[in-house]
Structure formats: structure tokens, C-alpha cells
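Something for you to look into today, if you have time. Just paste the record in under my message, thanks.
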Amino acid sequence: MNWPLFALAVAAFGIGTTEFVIMGLLPDVARDLGVSAPAAGMLVSGYALGVAAGAPILAIVTAKWPRKQALVGLMSLFILGNILCAVAPTYGFLMVARVVTAFCHAAFFGIGSVVAAELVAPDKRAQAVALMFTGLTVANILGVPLGTAFGHAAGWRSTFGVVTGIGVVAAIMLWSMLPRKIPMQGGNIFQEFRSIIDTRVQLSLLTSTLASISMFTVITYIAYILLDVTGFSAKEESWVLLLFGAGITVGGLVGGKLADWKLMPVLCTVFICIAIVLGLFSFTSHYKWPTLATMFAWGAFAFAVVPGAQIRVLDTARGAPNLASTLNQGAFNLGNATGAWLGGVAISAGLPLTDLPLIGAAVALLGLATVALSASLDRRAQVAA
């Protein structure tokens, strides 16, 4: 057991649970706070925008902090945010609490990804990042469905209380299991920002954003699709989300291994598969058993992108790995916010819920285009060299 990676994975589990569990609880939150479904969906967008806004701010604030202390400090902010979510009396208060919680997200995964890659051999970097992100995938297998079921039974606020406890455990594990001295990159944070301007770095960040838009256009409103289109009950919904989480876990681990093998071809293939599966989901969502198969496949392909996209950013921004990795998390969550907003716009415009997967498929094809363009720029750079 690589205990430092395990500690990072536990922290990722807590962060993943608080980010995604709100989607299964949206109908409960909307009912309790007296807001519409699109307004409740903005809680997903608010969190994601908090991540995107917090990425550069926390990157600057923590640039000179020792890596171990930075990660523990970020988990302390996570704990505070979840306490505020649990006691939120109004929709506005809850939105602010979600944004506070989100501020730690990008910096934690950004710094954590670099630390994970430092703890293993160079040819295992994507797998190490995938192992840390396994906490995020397990959050979708266990944290989200169990948190959803617990929230249905005991009230949605109780779920955030439990997540607060997970954050406390994670902070203790990080403090006790991470090495005292973790290598840090030298240099000036503002000089690092200049290296981010490179076209290939920007394309890599755009790829991460489009991957998230594709996923969150649909997953934000998955509770409504499963309940109103497929016909699952609230209890059955938790099991479907568990199956989706199982797909995410498989996709993350397999995607990490494949990314260490052939990064760009694998990313192209995965985006094609996402587009196909989401296109099918527009039709299979009417039937229970086909929906189960589609949800598993979608989860697998959607998360197979993550370790490869993270390593791609590190490879194209070698002069600023901590900043690039942190901004990539902001890029993912900018996509989360945009996807939740895009899905809400589609619903408000009167489009049926079954059109959301088609929109997600179209965005996945845009992601494919950015990967293809990035690969073309790589070939040009090699020829020039």
C-alpha cells in the first residue's frame, strides 16, 4: 500500500462526494428551499465556478507553502465549507457555502496530482494520478449513492454533516501519512503564468473543459431523467448512481494505464466513445435495463478522459506543473458550470430531457477536435525540432 497516495485518495473521496452528491439531492433541495429545478441546478454551477475562480487565487496563495501543509490547509477550508452547507437556512446561504467549499477543490487536486506524480517512477505518472482520482471515483460508487439515500431518509443537510466528518479524517491522514519534505518547483508564480499562454497548454485546458461540459450537461439533471423519463423510484435511483460510479472507477483506472501507453490516440478514442454512448442514451433512457448498461458505459468513458487530460497538461506546461495542474482543475469545473447552465437553458427552453444527452454528445465531438488539433501541433513541433 502506498500510504501517501491512499491519504490523497481519501481526501479526493470527500471532495468528490460533496461535489457530486448534490445532483442526487437536487429535487429535495429545490423542494425544501422553494426554488425551481434550473435554480437548484445553479448550485452545481456555483460550485464549479467557485473551483474555476479559486484555481488561480489559491495557486498564488499556496505557491510557496510546503506541499504537505498546503494540502492540509486546503482540507481545513473544505471542512468549513461543508459545515456551512449543513446549516444553510436559505438558497443564497447554501450557494455561498458551496462556493466556499469549492475554493479548495482546484488547488487540492492540482497540488495533489503533482505530488502523486512525484511519488512514483516517471512511466507510472498517469497511473499514480489515476489512483489519487480513484477517491473521486469511489465517491461516485459509494459516497454519492449512499449520500443520496441518506439525504432522502434523514434530510439533505445530514449528508453534508457526514461529509464534514470525512474531511476531518482526511486531514488527519494527510498530516500523518504524507512525507515531511515533498519536492517543490522553484521560480516565480507570475513567470509560471506566462508559460501557460502556450497554445498547446491552452488547447489542453480547453479539452478538459469540453469533457466536463459534455458530462455535466446530462449528469446535473440525471435525477430528473431517471425519475421522470426512465421511471425509476427514488430508492432505485441510488442504485443506478452506484452503477454509474462503478463505471467511473473502471474508466479512471483503465484510462490511466492506457494514457501511460498512448496518450493522444487514447484521448481521441475515448471522446468518440463518449459521443456514441450519449447519443444512445437519448433513446435507452426510456427503458430501465438499457439505461443501466448505458450509465455504466458512460461513466467508464467519461472518466477515462481525466488522468490522460491531467498528464497532457503537465506535459505541455513543464515549466509550471503546479499552476497548470491547478488551472486544469479549474478548467474541468468551468466545464461543470457551463454544462449545468447549458442543461438548464435547454430545459427552460422547453426541450425534452432526452435531448440533453444529444447536446452532451455534440460537445464531446468538439473535445475530439481539440485533441486532434493538439496532436497536429505536436507533430509540427517534432518536425521543427
Remarks:
- The chain has two domains: 1-186, 189-384.
